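Internal ticket #5521
Category: modeling
Description: The requester needs a full-assembly model to guide mutagenesis choices. All entity lines are attached below as received. Residue total reported by intake: 864.
Assigned to: D.W.
Attached entities:
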Amino acid sequence: MVRPVSFTINGEPVRVTTDEDRMLLWVLRYDLGLTGTKFGCGEGLCGACSVIVGTEAVRSCSTKVKDIEGKQVLTIEGLSQDGHLHPLQGAFLERHAFQCGYCTSGMIVNAYALLLKKPRPTREEVVKAMDDNLCRCGSHTRILEAIDAAAAAMSGGVR
Amino acid sequence: MNGEGNLSRREFLSLAGASGLYVFFRIEDLLAQEPARLGGRPGYPTDFNAYLRIGEDGRTTCLVGKVELGQGAMTSLAQLLAEELDVPFGSVDMVMGDTDLCPWDMGTFGSLSIRQFGPVLRSAAAEARAVLLQLGAERLQVPPDRLQVKDGVISKLGDPGTHITYAQLVQGRRIERHLEKVPVKPPKEFRVVGRAAARKDALEKVTGRARYAADIGLPGTLHARIVRPPAHGATLKDADTDRVANVPGATVIRDGDLIAVLHECPDLADRALALVKAQFDRPAPAVDDATIFGHLLKNAPAAQTLGESGNLEEGEKSAAAVFDRTYLNSYVAHTPMETHSALARIENGKVTVWASTQTPFGIKAQVAQALGFPPEKVRIITPYVGGGFGGKSASRQAIEAARLARITGRPVQVVFDRAEEFFYDTFRPAAVVKIRSGLTSAGKIAFWDFKVLCAGEREAKHFYDIPNQRTVSAGGWQGGQPTGLHPFAVGPWRAPSVNTNTFARESQIDIMAAKAGSDPLQFRLSHVSDPRMVRVLKAAAEAFRWTPKPAPSGRGFGVACATYLGTYVATFAEVAVDRATGRVRVSRVVCAQDMGLVVNPDGARQQTEGAIAMGLGYALTEEVRFRGGEVLTRNFDTYEVPRFSWLPTIETVLIENPDTPASGCGEPPIVCMGAVVANAIHDATGARLFQLPMTPARIKAALRT
Ligand code: FES
Ligand code: FES
């Protein structure tokens, strides 16, 4: 059914009039022009399309717009504030925790949700939380290191 | 507006790879200045202006036909330019893979960006620097040998007040003077090359601003989903597209065999596509993933002898033990995270295609042919590419988008879904290697008879000291197979041929080492005299803290070594095998490489880490399932690629060898992964695996025998 659906995107309220059964990924990328969120598999298997809804990372390729009505959505574009990179972005940048960069938005967003819940995760917890985000370039080692570094920076010091 | 549609120049340059920084000459000027090229097979232009522009703002734009796939070419090529031109690395902006702006290039693959194109770019920059120095000497009225250049400023030795910048000299114009045979810098003078450099693509990639082909938005774009056959070789009988009208806004285009459903939203195009009822005639499947190896053995093309020496018969007579082994590997997919994508627009009789591709100039010719346009009416722009690994040399999506743009008169985007990505992938070919070899009673290799079918000849020849030997290859990944040999397309996959050839060779060497009761490292060293190979083996062994012991030692240690187009690589690994489940955990990998000059050590490390992680996939799980031309593997649930939880600790050792030309590092470190894991599994359990991938089922089967 086509109808207006309202939610918040990166802090801004929006209202899109669209088929409510469409997946959020396509509404973000084409209706709202937020192309930082990527398509990788379309079936919830790769994590390239991860965004934050409320405080959880969700797969936007498999989340209907009607299910985010009234909720707060955060995408990679909303992570930096006033021109400052989020510590996760800074750590990914500094450590070159990417190669082609196609998985990177999903990685950062997924790690963001992890750190919301667990500001100082152990390595095992990080691996577990990130395991369903795929990176074909093999940037894994650096991604784990970047998440560790960001967690340390955000909680004000090295463990 | 500058004719770039709705993209501002800033955006345009940014998506072409210039990191969003302004350059002060106009695009139209660049177009006008494109150097004349010969028809037929073009080579690299000789005029250095084709590769670089010095802006009035002091920034330098470097133009290259290579593309950024993730391998860091944007950064390492900028380092080479900055080094030879003597400008700050940070002042170099890269424009890559734009067929109107950049000099011709064959394509970005084979670790050639640095090995083959690096010298071209270096000499262009060195010549430009020498010309600038001459111009500066004339302007400052100081002989050139009394001048120095630093960061784009020419100044008088001992009198820094007397100076002029490149930007002041050039004033945004083309440099018309040329010099012959200007030498490049000797490595000991390097300031930028050989050191870590901040990646030029970093900021865009961590902020989501990096644009890939599917991210290019043009107003009025239609998204196309195309009716695909259920199997390669199937032919369309009939298609009923009436129900597409149930999705408001969806339209159907038929153009010969091409049936596309278009919509302004890609997901709604997809929804409409599901309503098309198409019928196909399908040939009976001739072969599947189980019967493929027998099929290849029977149907492979004629074999070529790549090399032989000594006398195999004599060798066999001198052998105390003979080993006859067959090694198999399955079809392997590229699966870059970004699927093949393209956006095509036709304006004023010229088509522009933004495409995810490794071969922009190759596609240019294909699009020109498909549309019947002259080549100068085709422009390919390559934004960031989300991984290639050899699989983005084929780019049917660009042609489809261009055809549909012409028919509809609107920009058309084609983005493969994951099933299409598997279906149209040019897989690493399934292959068979047969080796017959022997050992003397003194534990020396007496003879070696190596025959590879369908993987290709690259690095099939070994580097061991063996008196009697022969290497034979039949077929390969390049095509030209007998029709029907493979049920679908095959092509280059990161380090084509070499993963297969190395798996077989290094497994066989290990089998002989075990039979000889020798430590596998010592056995190799006693058959190698090339000092570069000796050095990587020893360096890796030391970092691994290898202690000699014949296999199977129960430790789960493996070793393998290889050469790849001039790079020497030795890889050691430690694994644990769960005998009950057949699962392997690779806990530690050490990889030593001698790649000659290392342009960007951090980049080389990163490529090595990536190759090792990726290599675990073809070693352990990656295998395309199919029945005839039907590709049964459609998504990541049935095609397992490496994950965080698989990750070993990785240690990379880069051998210092700056006086040997750079030979590339994106591919070599992946080639040992099949063999090193196989050898480590044998060391752990005594079981020998002869087929890749080494799945739990195959490991359990090997443990039983
Ligand atoms: S695109 Fe959503 S999980 Fe892969
Ligand atoms: S960096 Fe390429 S997929 Fe992760």
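Resolution: model delivered.
Comment from assignee: Chain A touches chain B through 60 residues (CB under 8 Å).
Ticket closed.
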